[in-house]
Amino acid sequence: xxxxxxxxxxxxxxxxxxxxxxxxxxxxxxxxxxxxxxxxxxxxxxxxxxxxxxxxxxxxxxxxxxxxxxxxxxxxxxxxxxxxxxxxxxxxxxxxxxxxxxxxxxxxxxxxxxxxx
Length: 117
What we know:
The chain is an alpha+beta fold. The protein has a single domain, classed as Ubiquitin-like (UB roll) (Roll), CATH 3.10.20. It has 3 helices and 5 strands; from the N terminus they run E-E-H-E-H-E-E-H. A 5-stranded mixed beta sheet has the order 2-1-5-3-4.
């Protein structure tokens, strides 16, 4: 039995099976579920060697490679694969860029609106 891990959550998958159902249970967002829209793009943090080669749909998708896969298309061979949701990485990168640009510390960036006096 293989495993997909996202954060603190783990889902079991039979060896050789698609990872779509497990990824959905873990909270990966899905759109078309056919390898066309790219909504379910995930980042493989560890265990890319445990996934089957890219599918034709993944090869045609811009930015897909062995460490950036479509959850609706990928199959696990065996072992464990640790993933991250694509959008989460982009949000982290944007926040880091903002901090660097303005030389801000972490306490400065908050999601609050301030009233004008």
